[in-house]
Design goal:
alpha+beta; two-stranded antiparallel sheet; 15 strands
Length: 408
């Protein structure tokens, strides 16, 4: 048996001559446990928001998106795109054209993104799951062109789900010069009618800016005949996303970017990762402060055990072994606090998942979810454990060596 560890374990659980040492040791372990619990819960809440946002985007964003590396559009009949479409793992592939325009309805107007999609768009995404209204998702019928509007854009323009009349779309002409005497000639103008529904992705960018319509309407509006802004793809069930994406990138070369859902929203998820990292840093500092209680406990223990140290020396223990006894003491306190904190943190996360103990607001239905979302990731638990152990071990190393040399 490891001699310093054996003695340290006896010291940790034995009754000291001064009861306050046991009290301070207990407070030290509780402080480490609380800080560890806070780390586990906070990181899990950030994971919950990350997963919640990602779940919303699955209803609108394609599984894989292929976009031109340069410029806004590319030829729809590009052999590179044809080769990507022909991969055996591809289940649905649809072309889309999108660009900015001005939408005018009644006396209201707004800058919007018009996204024209193929007729199989509802097979590519879960668009039907996020529609509200009495109609259905439609892109065109005969010569009629439908426009499905984001719910917040509809509110901004003063529209209902089944809005009457025409929604006029203005897009600048790509060729020619603007005549200031007759500026309206510098725009292509077309109109859309309501299919009887609006969509709600619960993402401000889409709900506030996007209009879905047919790709023919968008190509005519933006003078992009035979072009596409992106090729959107859904893979067959059971396909290896990473492997297929790597193969597509090899085919695309430097000509196209191949993006999965997280990469399509890289800015959003990057901000969330930064926020999570900052929270982790702040809580680690709090953990370090909690570990200072261990230093106080160990310094008092060293004073209390001076007579025992003399006995140990007479029995042949070296100064290095004696110092290791108190190092093990501090490390066991931090380890006990780490394990207890992780267990308590996981318990709180489970209770939040099952019962929603902490609500987001006082009134139900005011937010997308009623309670803080929680998602426990194993890699975060490992990170927390390693962090607590590292901070706890580092915090006692120098103080123990210093006090041991001064007091023993």
């Amino acid at each position: 048996m490891n001699f310093p560890f054996y003695i340290a374990r006896r010291y940790l659980f034995s009754k000291k001559s001064t009861h306050v040492i046991n009290l301070i040791s207990g407070i030290s372990a509780v402080g480490v446990a609380v800080a560890t619990m806070a780390l586990v819960v906070t990181l899990s809440v950030f994971n919950g928001f990350h997963d919640l946002v990602a779940s919303f985007l699955t209803a609108f964003d394609p599984q894989i998106e292929v976009v031109p590396a340069q410029g806004k559009t590319a030829p729809a009949d590009d052999p590179v795109l044809a080769k990507i479409r022909a991969l055996p793992e591809v289940d649905v592939a649809t072309e889309s054209v999108e660009d900015q325009a001005l939408a005018v309805y009644g006396g209201n107007q707004a800058m919007v993104v018009v996204k024209g999609v193929d007729d199989n768009f509802d097979q590519l995404t879960h668009i039907n799951d996020i529609l509200y209204g009495e109609g259905s998702f439609s892109l065109h019928a005969a010569n009629l062109q439908y426009g499905t509007v984001g719910i917040r854009l509809a509110d901004q323009l003063g529209m209902s789900a089944d809005w009457p009349g025409n929604l006029y779309i203005y897009a600048p002409r790509r060729e020619g010069q603007l005549d200031m005497m007759n500026p309206t000639e510098g725009f292509v103008v077309d109109s859309l009618i309501s299919p009887g529904v609006v969509f709600s992705v619960r993402n401000g960018r889409y709900d506030r800016e996007y209009i879905l319509t047919s790709i023919g309407f968008a190509r005519s509006l933006f003078d992009s005949q035979g072009m596409l802004s992106q090729l959107e793809i859904r893979l067959k069930p059971g396909s290896d996303l990473d492997a297929v994406k790597a193969e597509m990138r090899q085919i695309a070369g430097d000509k196209y970017h191949v993006l999965d859902r997280l990469e399509q929203q890289a800015d959003t998820f990057k901000i969330m990762k930064i926020e999570k990292f900052i929270a982790y840093i702040f809580l680690t500092f709090i953990l370090a402060v909690a570990c200072f209680n261990i230093i106080g406990s160990l310094s008092m223990l060293i004073i209390d055990k001076k007579d025992d140290v003399v006995t140990l020396r007479n029995m042949g223990a070296t100064d290095k072994q004696i110092i290791r006894i108190f190092l093990f003491e501090g490390r066991m306190i931090s380890a006990i606090g780490a394990v207890a904190g992780i267990v308590l943190g996981l318990l709180l996360c489970w209770l939040q998942q099952e019962y929603g103990l902490v609500a987001l607001g006082e009134s139900s239905g005011s937010f997308v979810v009623d309670a803080y979302p929680v998602s426990v990731h194993p890699e975060d638990i490992v990170t927390v454990l390693l962090t607590v152990v590292a901070v706890g071990f580092a915090s006692v190393w120098y103080p123990v060596r210093y006090f041991a040399k001064r007091l023993l």
